[in-house]
Amino acid sequence: MIPAARRAVPGADRRGAAHRGAGHASCHHGEILQGVFLDAAGRRCAGLVTLPMTGPGSRAEFTRRPGTPPEQLIVRPGDRTKAARAAVLAVEECARRRREAPCGGELRISGDIPVGLGMGSSTSDVIAVVRAVADSYGVLLSPDAVARLAVRAELACDPLMLDARPVLFAQREGRVLEVLGRRLPPLVVVGCALGGGAPVDTLALPARVHDDTDVRAFERLRTLLRRAVATGDAALLGEVATASARRGQQVLRHPEFDTLADIARRLGAVGVQIAHSGAVAGLLLDPAAPGLRRRVRSCVRALESNGIAATRTFTTFPTSPTSAASPSTPISPISPTSPSSPTFPTTKEFPSGPAHRGGHRPTGPDTPRRPAHLPAL
What we know:
By secondary structure, the chain is α+β, with helices and mostly antiparallel strands. Helix content is 31%, strand content 23%. Strands 8-9-7-10-11 form a 5-stranded antiparallel beta sheet.
């Protein structure tokens, strides 16, 4: 587990500072694979593999007030109900470990994750809060413990409490079904938002019952993804992500899906990935294939020409000149408004559209939320 960051609070006395903690959690870019799988005991359970993405995240600061009733919890913004539940649960857990009585306190949450796109904004809030509470108690919670609290707070959660290792995660149970390997194959992801970035109300979607044929298909995709991770095969991962996204359309029914798949086929992408609980999607490119910059620019143009908002181009690997897949072809952020003038930073992700700039996250994190605004690029 990544320990919650500790920072000094200007103007706080020693007693107050000792009871104040901070936490942070990142987001993801939707799923690579999601379905129903068999656990080690042969039992069916829902599971997913997410596409990690650094950059946007949630931050929380918790100041506990020893001696106050635990129900005296001030939460700002006031409608972060899932985060508030997480704070109460985390206080109970940490106080028990410290053999203290649970108490109230003050919780402040901020973040810059676009909401409603399937990027794990509510889970990010919850994990940041749990880490802030634990930090205020001087307690280090294991990823398993954080996952259990997150599931109790929001019924299902994404595996954001883990590191970037690709894992098959049972989101409704908060446990890892399988560690697929050390890292994902190198990929360049040209992100976009379907449906204009309007939130997807997953609770309103029709529930789908998976039969034995579905489970066998998901298990086959799991085997292929395991092989793709073990061999660093970007093309095979793209095949799995596309198959999973296509299955997801039986429920989500994004009208742009066929267009997105056609763009991937025409422009040499290895596949597409789509959040199964939102509208965020991505074209997956193999950085080792020739003409990477040209293909990234072409993908952005093709998305725009079909009315699909491009958002962020990022990679699954560091992009310093010495760590890129091809030293002669550095990865660059491609601005949709100036595709001929890329620059070359050394970060893992590159905002290339207004959908991921600060200021688009509303004060309320729980569904229903207002849509993430995606102005024309």
